[in-house]
Specification:
The protein has 149 residues and is α+β, with helices and mostly antiparallel strands. It has helices at 3-9, 16-27, 33-44, 49-61, 131-137; strands at residues 31-32, 66-68, 76-78, 86-90, 96-99, 125-128.
């Protein structure tokens, strides 16, 4: 759908900053506000950090993008908002990837005791080492280890 129409459908005013932020988040999900600001500046020129944060806030509030914040990491933004998926985060480089629901449909996980809460979302982050970091730290062949022929 056209980003301008998407903004209008969600009751948000159409501005150049909001359109650029929406395109930046859509083109490369899981980026930080600073990374999004770089993309927006490349697209429309000078834009203040506050304008980018304001746009991210409105787009999040309107449900057009989702804000996630893994522990010890800046907030990241994505446009996959139509489901209750989870995330994989690399402990070394911080790369973040989507992970579909662990089991069943939203909210994916049922609390053993919901204590009276009506659960409508579960936020799970799987931590580990991404394939690129694994490869970068894999030991090379040694004298004791024959090289593949």
């Amino acid at each position: 759908m056209d980003p301008a129409n998407l903004l209008r459908q969600h009751g948000a005013q159409v501005t150049a900053q909001r359109l650029a932020v929406l395109r930046a988040v859509s083109s490369r999900p899981h980026r930080t506000a600073d990374q999004i600001q770089e993309s927006v500046r490349a697209e429309i020129g000078a834009v203040s950090r506050q304008a980018v944060y304001d746009a991210l806030g409105v787009l999040t509030e309107k449900g057009l993008i989702r804000r996630i914040q893994p522990a010890r990491s800046p907030a990241r933004y994505e446009n996959r908002v139509d489901d209750n998926h989870h995330h994989l985060v690399c402990r070394r480089c911080g790369v973040t990837a989507d992970a579909d629901c662990a089991v069943g449909s939203a909210p994916c996980l049922e609390a053993a005791d919901s204590r009276g809460f009506v659960v409508d979302e579960a936020e799970v982050i799987y931590w580990g080492i991404c394939p690129a970091c694994q490869e970068a730290t894999a030991p090379g062949p040694t004298e004791d280890t024959p090289s593949p022929a």
